[in-house]
């Protein structure tokens, strides 16, 4: 049992006390469901299912699910989680991800959950992989394959790159671990990350899983940039 869920805390957004790390009022205000492209999770208006880019070039994943748009207050909360050692936020952030439309169904149907692996430099600097912490919170009773997806080379920071440049940087960056071949081939997988920006990283990771024979790939992230 995760006792942190039951202990008194303070909301990291509105500072209400006592409350969960993200209180119900802030969830209601800042985490309203948004219609999104089924393939890349970009906000989508007009009742369409897929955005134009995904219609022209279908991505390797079957669906992408995001809980919130990347922006305040979630950008500040993610900064605490990723860069200020606030690993205790993993449970609250995973709860938000599980409430994204379609997320609970994807997790229930999954044979395994995989985090996007962190680069060696970031893992050494932080001491943990945020995606792995989220994956373990999302799937406490399912297989979390922390080492089934390998990062073959580390891409330099991509914050200043456009989508085409990011796609080029991460091409061939991932591969499925040979000793996990049986756990991936023909399976339904959920690929977990904290933020999807252009989608280049999760596309490269999903391509590696598809090459390993995955039958269905759902990408689940907390936040999607718009």
Largest sheet: 4 strands, parallel
Strand content: 15-25%
Average predicted local confidence, pLDDT: 91
| Cross-sheet strand order for the largest sheet | 1-6-5-2
Topology at a glance:
Layout (H helix, E strand, L loop, with lengths): L23 H7 L21 H5 L6 E7 L4 H10 L6 H9 L4 H7 L2 E4 L4 H7 L3 H9 L10 E3 L11 H8 L3 E3 L4 H4 L3 E9 L3 H12 L4 E9 L2
Parallel strand pairs: 1-6, 2-5, 5-6
Antiparallel strand pairs: 3-4
Structure commentary:
By secondary structure, this protein is an alpha/beta fold. Helix content is about 35%, strand content about 15%. The protein has ten helices and six strands. Strands 1-6-5-2 form a four-stranded parallel β-sheet, sandwiched between helices. Strands 3-4 form a two-stranded antiparallel sheet. Helix 10 links the parallel strand 5 (about 190-195) and strand 6 (about 215-225). Helix 4 crosses helix 7 and helix 8 (about 165-170) packs parallel to helix 10 (about 200-210).
């Amino acid at each position: 049992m995760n006792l942190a869920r039951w202990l008194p805390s303070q909301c990291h957004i509105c500072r209400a006390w006592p409350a969960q790390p993200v209180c119900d009022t802030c969830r209601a205000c800042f985490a309203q469901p948004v219609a999104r492209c089924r393939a890349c999770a970009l906000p989508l208006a007009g009742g369409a299912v897929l955005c134009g880019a995904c219609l022209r070039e279908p991505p390797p994943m079957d669906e992408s699910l995001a809980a919130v748009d990347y922006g305040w207050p979630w950008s500040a909360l993610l900064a605490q989680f990723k860069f200020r050692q606030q690993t205790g936020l993993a449970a609250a952030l995973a709860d938000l991800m599980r409430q994204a439309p379609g997320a609970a169904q994807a997790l229930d149907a999954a044979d395994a959950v995989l985090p996007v692996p962190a680069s060696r430099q970031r893992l050494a600097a932080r001491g943990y992989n945020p995606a792995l912490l989220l994956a373990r919170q999302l799937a406490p009773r399912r297989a979390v394959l922390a080492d089934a997806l390998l990062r073959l080379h580390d891409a330099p920071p991509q914050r200043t790159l456009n989508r085409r440049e990011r796609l080029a940087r991460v091409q061939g960056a991932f591969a499925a671990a040979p000793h996990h071949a049986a756990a991936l081939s023909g399976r339904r997988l959920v690929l977990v990350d904290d933020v999807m920006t252009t989608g280049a990283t999760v596309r490269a990771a999903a391509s590696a899983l598809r090459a390993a024979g995955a039958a269905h790939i759902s990408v689940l992230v907390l936040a999607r940039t718009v």
